[in-house]
Amino acid sequence: MNESARNKPGMEHSVPEHPHTLGRRLSSWRDAQLARMALRDAGEPGLVLDVPSGSGRFWPVLAEHANRVILAADPSTDTLAHAEAQTANEVRKRIRTFQSSAFSIGLSANAVDCIFCMRLFHHLGDSEKRGAVLDEFHRVTRDTAIVALWVDGNVKAWRRKRQLGQLAPGTFAPRNRFVVCRSDIEAEFSHAGFRIVGHRDFLPGYAMWRVYVLRKAGE
């Protein structure tokens, strides 16, 4: 998955629309499939916060559940306006948008059933930043969180590591997307007060993309 990074590393990123190539259509189909599975594993939550919502690409999937209330937050009001403008009316009327950062969500404690975060964590290379977001998620959700990121232990991660290792000394390699060690991120989930319900891989053993379903420990 080659999402374009529009902000600096370590910040929320708004994801632009992708060209409608066959490969991209297949990738989008698999993304939507993983999201549906994750929502099912989370118990089909009724009140979901999509953060950062970016272009709203997952809103149609979230809206497939007829009784679901959907909140969508993004740091950029322009991004939210663009997402609403390109979303079908029957979906758009199901979405309540507001400006907010994943690091400091403008909602009270235990405000939603589930936080849905598909396009942030692979931009966070710093464990402290990931921990800060997870702590905020733990505060705001009353039950579950769905988090996607790049993990190691697969062919694509191995290739990426090898390619970065082959760069000539002194070569600048922009780092706005990061692969995280699975044991590290899973320890971070636990430290923030979550237990892992399960995970789904984009292509098991090959692709880096993994979607975790988390539940507050003790819930």
From TrEMBL:
Print the keywords alphabetically: Methyltransferase, Transferase
| Region feature Disordered, mapped onto this chain | 1-22
Q: Which InterPro entries match?
A: Methyltransf_25 (IPR041698), SAM-dependent_MTases_sf (IPR029063)
One MF term in GO for this entry?
methyltransferase activity
Task: List compositional bias (Basic and acidic residues) regions by residue number.
Answer: 1-20
Q: Does the keyword Methyltransferase apply?
A: yes
Where would one find the signal peptide in this protein? Answer: none
Kindly state a single biological-process term from the GO annotations of this entry. methylation
What CDD domains does the database record attribute to this sequence? AdoMet_MTases (cd02440)
The record's annotation in Gene3D superfamilies points to:
Vaccinia Virus protein VP39 (3.40.50.150)
Q: What region holds the Methyltransferase domain?
A: 48-142
Report the Pfam families cross-referenced here.
Answer: Methyltransf_25 (PF13649)
Q: Does the keyword Transcription apply?
A: no
The protein here is known as SAM-dependent methyltransferase
| Species this protein is from | Pseudomonas lutea
